[in-house]
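Narrative summary of target 7.
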Amino acid sequence: MIQKMRRAYTLRVNPRLQVIVVLMLVSFCSTAPNLIGQTLPPLPPLSLEDFGPAIRKQVNEAYHAARANPRDAIDNGRLGMILQTYEQYEMAAICYQRARSLAPSEFRWAYYLAIVQAGFGKHAPASATFREAVRLKPDYLPAQLALAASLLASGDLSESRRNYEAMLKNHPDSPQAHYGLGRIMSEKRDVAAAIEHYRRACDLYKNYGAAHYALGLAYRDTGRMDAAKEHLALHQKNKLNSPPANDPLLDAVRELNIGAAEHLSKGVSLEAAGQIEGAIAEHESALKVNPLFLEAHANLIILYGRLGQAEKAEEHYRAAVAINPHSAESHYNFGVLQNERGKFEEAAQAFLSCLDINPFHAEANHNYGLVLERKGRFDEAAKYYRAAVENKPDYRPSHFHLARLLVRDGKLKEAISFFLKTLTPEDENTSLYMYALAATYVRAGDNERALHYMREARQRAAASSKAELLTLIERDLRTLEKRD
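Modeled conformation, tokenized:
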């Protein structure tokens, strides 16, 4: 049977809500220091028709508080934070400028202003504001990293490099600083130095997708194709992963978001708790806020499938591929759905569509291998199982199924090596894996190891109440003990 779905719950998108904001004639001053002591830029009037009810209420309350207390830095800044969390950066910048004028020594308003300036591509002004923020709070590492990144984005490689190198003196374990230096070295065509920094970033944070990608390209440029392939594959597995920011100020902004991403997050939590209907309701609420929210559609393929509502699941698959036909996860989830419905040819086609987009997708390789094995195409199936374990070395199901095929071909030593990789971490399948390993040792003539693993399998099967498996293990164990 095809394995359980690989959950596509990636909270990587903060959806851009269509917030209509009408500006009065305001001259946008891009560098915060010039505003200090000057007349406040006026708050823009807002049109809230396109907000959802909860967000409309949230923005409206913050807006009226800022209007009622125009000289209150906190009220002005909070409105900026709410606009920022919905990616309305230019509007948020005006609020932060007001807050900075009212509280010029307050670090957070300078920091937030710099973030939103960078958010709409004003990297030179953002660098100036980040510099002021770092002056106000020189020990806040996220601001130091943001300053160096903004300088790099604005083309000031020398100052960016000085900032990253200064950071590493106090924070030698910062993967972001090493990655930033790697980018600078790449720009300077110093590939050897770039590789060293990218490699250090990957060592410090194993799942650093962007660093693996940059390292893979650098290795490719030097002709080291095996290393390039390894790191590009790691990028595919971790493309959305990055080191934790440890940025409580930015977390405070994110916590204000009650839009689509918030509904998605709640839906993911409910699914993990087994509350499928509640999870579906939250995902559908996310789509009411943002009908083009690809992750919500992709997740609903599986969620509706689990309730047996195949038509609804297909509806969301069609919506997902209409938004982005190159979404590997949407095709993969649809393949899982079709397999569970017994539509194996449709499942196979969906898995192949996924692999056309992302050939490193371990679960799609594994599931397509199962399709091939069901058809008796064992050698081809083994190739896909091998691809799965190459791209995800800890993916136990592929180790198990590949080992089975190797036993079938009489390659017992190699089969044992793959079975051994299924034993950790322990879960409800460990007793089955140990039983298969013990049986392979029997075929290889190693009764001592066979007895050891058969007894271990019996203990785990008994503990997990696997009665049918336990009966088989005890039968074979009695036979082995008579031989011993």
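The chain has a mean pLDDT of 88.
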